[in-house]
Structure formats: structure tokens, C-alpha cells
């Protein structure tokens, strides 16, 4: 779809290479390889050879059987590759949980069995969706968790562990040489919590600790003060002896991980409900600026309603974790992308490269593409470059979903729906 527009799709960035692959949820670069977790089955995980960035090539692909799960997140630690296993279409399918109550209530109101049209209108789906939701309820879902692969031979990834958890399963996560930090549903809790696994023997993950927000542990007698799954862990990133946790509509938490068996909150900040979009990722810069410590938070454009703020990026002063303060923000205006109001497309922030080793933040903005933002002055973030890929095929808009940067400075962009670009920051 060609769009006439008087602002360049690229500024200070040039495309180096491209490969047309199914859309994905995460890209991780390690050496001469890029690892892509795909959004939709049967596509699981693709390993790409990027030694020649002008011509990325597929080395191997892990495919999924059936369409009940997706494995759209991936991490690599040495010769180990981790993928999540999560229920495909989880938010839609969970609407089926409301069916029994809706049927009973509507039958009582009407004095007869409710039609699928009436039930659908009540729970926010179509009549045609009701049999699909019923079938999913009867089938249940017991496959959620994570998998570990031996990738010493990149052409032949070998599954060595499959750790099942509960419910939806695992969403985004972190991993290092010792532990895996999983965001997952667990029995007895509402919404995702943090579960830490000892990975010294990668064939036998061993749970060592859990962390949740007060109100999540229903089996422990806690009661949430929010509705549904609004407050939950999105994922937590390990930084030294800390875990930086984005907790969706509850903002962020900084967790003391010096004793991995006894996780404690060091700091918290919540800018909801005044800010409508949920907190997706939070991490500190590796360096201080004028003696102070700063962190970058980014909100996901999730369920935007016209007239409300789009998801955007925050700069926080985290020098004192007992007194975290938001000091500035960066946003992209709707006039900065030709696809900002394309029907069905998302426009707004999503994610950034999860390594803040300079003052440059590489942020993905869905139909706004990639934005490189310099926070050298944390009170005044400045965009120094952007790149908006054109949508492939008959897609109405791009959906830049995830980003990573390699040791050569090359930038890897993964579209949520279709396509993978390798680009280079060329100046300014």
C-alpha cells in the first residue's frame, strides 16, 4: 500500500538487508546469528545467519504442531536457546470463561435459553465466536511454559527441556548463565507473576523463588484491588543484583535479587490510571549522567481509544529507589507516520532494545517504525533518527515490534505481521 507523504520514511538510517519472513514478537542477536520468535503457529523460532547483513539467510526453523500455542519470545545464552510457550489467542479465548455465567444470567432475564447472538453481545464477541470459545473451554490448555534448546549446532536445534507452568503459560522473560526469570501464570494466582528457575542443569530447570504483587495470590487469601488481569507482571529484566519489573497497569517495581531465594521490592512507581497504556518495559541506563541514575520506561500501545494518549516513553530519575520520579517523556506525533490512523493498525510505543549501554534508546513504535532517541540530556530526549518500513504485501501498515543491535552497530527490526529488516544508523 503506497501512501503519499511529505516527510521521509527514513532519516539518518539506511536499509542494509531484508528477508521476508512471518511476523514475530522478539528478535535477539548473538554473534553472527539472529533468533526470531514468531507470532503465529505453525511458525515457532527461526535462526538466521546475519554474517552477511545484506543477505540474511535461514539456518533452521523450529515449527509448531497445532495452533494452540505460540512461541513468540526467545533468548540465547551461550549454546542454549530459550523460548516461551504461551496459549495462542489467549486474550480472545479467555473470554470463554464468561460463558457459563452469561448463559445463566441471560436465561433468567429472558425466561428462555439465550441465543449465541445475545451471549456474544453480552461478552463482547460475535455469535460465530461462541462455538470456538466453547470448544476451547472444553479442551482446556495445559501446554504453557518454556522450552530450552541446545543450539551448539545452529542448523539442528535440539530440545532438551520443556518446563510446564500453568494457565496461559510464559510471556516475555529474561535469562542469564545461572537463572531464567519467567513471567507466567501459576496456579493459585491471578495474572502473571515472576518465577525464577535455576538453570545450572538446563535439562532440569529447578524453581528457586517467586515474586508477585500483593493481591495476586488468591490461594493465599489475598484479594486484588483491581479488575481482571490489569495488574500483572509483563516481564522483569536482571540488572546486577536487581530485577526491573514492568507490571502493566501497576507501573513498575525494582526488586532486590541479591538473595535470589528471597526477592524483595526496593522501589515502585505507578503512573496509572492517569496514563491509559500499560507499562511494557523498564530498565536503567548502564551509565550515570552528572552523577545521577536514570531509567527508561516504555508503555505498550495496547487498546487505544481515540482521544486518549498513545503509548509513549518515559525517563525516570531512579537515583533514590525510595523516591522514583518521572522527569521527562518522549512521544511521536500522529503526523510523523503516514500509517498513524490506518484502520486496524496500532500507532504508539511498544518496546526498546533491552540493553541501555549508551544514551541512545532504540524504540519501536508499531506503525511509527523505529525511533532512535538520545537521552544524554535526560530532561530533554531528542530523536536523532527514524526508520519506517513500508508494509509488505496487502498489509495495511507496518507493525515494528522488536529491535536489537549487534556489535557492528547494525540494527535488526522485526515486524509483528511480516518482514525483517537490517538497517544502519548513518549519522546525526
Jot down its keywords.
4 helices, mainly beta, Methylamine Dehydrogenase, Chain H, 30 strands, 428 residues, 5-stranded antiparallel β-sheet, globular
CATH class category: Mainly Beta
Number of strands: 30
Envelope shape: globular
What CATH architecture do you see? 7 Propeller
Mean pLDDT: 96
- What gyration radius follows from the Cα positions, in whole Å? 22 Å
Notes on the structure:
This protein has 428 residues and is mainly β. It has a single domain, classed as 7 Propeller (Methylamine Dehydrogenase, Chain H), CATH 2.130.10. The chain contains 4 helices and 30 strands. It has helices at residues 90-93, 99-110, 116-123, 129-139, and strands at residues 10-11, 13-22, 24-30, 33-38, 43-49, 57-63, 69-70, 74-77, 80-87, 145-150, 158-164, 170-175, 179-184, 193-198, 206-211, 231-239, 242-248, 252-256, 264-269, 279-284, 294-299, 313-317, 325-330, 347-352, 360-366, 370-374, 382-387, 400-405, 410-415, 418-425. It has a 5-stranded antiparallel beta sheet with strand order 1-27-26-25-24, with no helix packed on it. Strands 7, 8, 9, 10 and 11 form a 5-stranded antiparallel beta sheet that branches. The protein is globular, with a radius of gyration of 22 Å.
